[in-house]
């Protein structure tokens, strides 16, 4: 199962270390971790801006292509 995990580097609710540890424990071989530098728990999209949204769109487009045998 594909997984895209995004996490803010300054998240005070869930530490970046804990987020990365959980990511590394995922069994999926189709996974991506995207760290948003300077973001906290509630402002990923605002802090991440266009690169954040581009990462999500690229991941989704790739999954769509895989599902539809376009790759």
Topology:
Elements lengths: L2 E6 L7 H10 L5 E6 L7 H24 L4
Parallel strand pairs: 1-2
Describe the model.
There is one protein chain. This protein has 71 residues and is of the alpha+beta class. The two termini are 17 Å apart. The protein contains two helices and two strands, in the order βαβα. It has helices at 16-25, 44-67, and strands spanning 3-8, 31-36. The chain is flat. It has a two-stranded parallel ribbon. The model has no long low-confidence stretch (mean pLDDT 96).
What characteristics describe this protein?
single chain, 71 residues, alpha+beta, two-stranded parallel sheet, 2 helices, 17% strand
């Amino acid at each position: 199962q594909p997984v895209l995990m995004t996490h803010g580097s300054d998240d005070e609710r869930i530490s970046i270390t804990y987020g990365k540890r959980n990511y590394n424990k995922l069994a999926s071989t189709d996974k991506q971790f995207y760290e948003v530098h300077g973001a906290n728990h509630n402002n990923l999209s605002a802090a991440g801006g266009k690169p954040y949204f581009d990462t999500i769109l690229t991941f989704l487009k790739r999954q769509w292509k895989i599902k539809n045998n376009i790759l």
